[in-house]
Amino acid sequence: MHIIEAADYEDMSLKAWEVLQHKLPRIQVLGLATGGTPVGMYDHLIKAVQNKQADVSHLHTVNLDEYIGLSTCDPNSYYMFMKEKLFGPLGLPEDKVHLPHGDAENPQAEGKRYEDLIQSLGGVDLQVLGIGKNGHIGFNEPGSEMDGRTSVVQLASSTVEANARFFENEEEVPKTAITMGIGTILEAGEILLLASGKNKAHAVKCMIEGEVTSYCPASALQKHPKVTVVADREALSEMN
Ligand code: GLP
Q1: What is the pTM (predicted TM-score) of this model?
Q2: For atom 6 of ligand 1, which residue has the closest CA?
């Protein structure tokens, strides 16, 4: 793993953007993540496209995950989050942005459809990841299969709690999701993981220095040959 240390969230966002900017012309399929962490980097991407310093017209995007039960019109869906934070400002056409359908009648079959879609696009060239404070990537919680494919998963109660900040209250947070599996994520050509803040420090340490174990799903990234971690000082504060 290549580790880039940043001073704080702003610096992490800039440094992560510099990594992405350099690779962007060679990326056809960009894997995206939700959550607060990548938003600063997305803002840099938006500015660069608006100033004609970057081009995304060739891109397909595939997101990691979506809550089950929320349609694309639901303000709390990851689709809406991405539309507001990135797809809208970038002017990406609907047919080039992809997320699992949270309101699919058969969520299991939707997982398979999404997996096939990724294959039909030629696979993910670069996958952007955040990390949960319990070490989850996408919605692959501790205990997940380390070679799993896109499927239906239960959210850990700590994840429901952490994500409640985006909802009116905790009861509204869906308890299940469709997520790319760890096996799916590991097939990306490259991975760019971002982490910021003290509450991620333990997960970051386990990911980089811990043994590869499903107790810390992000530790699976140690098996990938091309991972860049951009993390701020607080997120790196528990490292040896
Ligand atoms: C969510 C997402 C993850 C994300 C993580 C951290 O549950 N499914 O993809 O990386 O939580 O979110 P944040 O960046 O807001 O800390």
Answers
A1: 0.97
A2: 132
All residues at 6 or more sequence positions from 130 whose CB lies less than 8 Å from its CB, including other chains: 33, 34, 35, 37, 38, 137, 193, 194, 195
The ranges assigned to domains in the chain are 2-214+221-229
- 3-class DSSP state for residue 43? helix
CATH assignment of 2-214+221-229, given 3.30.565.10, 3.40.50.1360, 3.40.640.10, 3.10.20.70?
3.40.50.1360
39, 63, 99, 131: which to mutate for ligand 1, most atoms within 8 A of CB?
Answer: 131
Atom of ligand 1 nearest to the CA of 199: 16
For residues 179 and 110, is the Cβ–Cβ distance under 8 A?
A: no
Among 13, 32, 34, the mutation site with the greatest number of ligand 1 atoms within 8 A of its Cβ is: 34
pLDDT of the chain along its 240 residues, tens only?
999 999 999 999 999 999 999 999 999 999 999 999 999 999 999 999 999 999 999 999 999 999 999 999 999 999 999 999 999 999 999 999 999 999 999 999 999 999 999 999 999 999 999 999 999 999 999 999 999 999 999 999 999 999 999 999 999 999 999 999 999 999 999 999 999 999 999 999 999 999 999 999 999 999 999 999 999 999 999 999
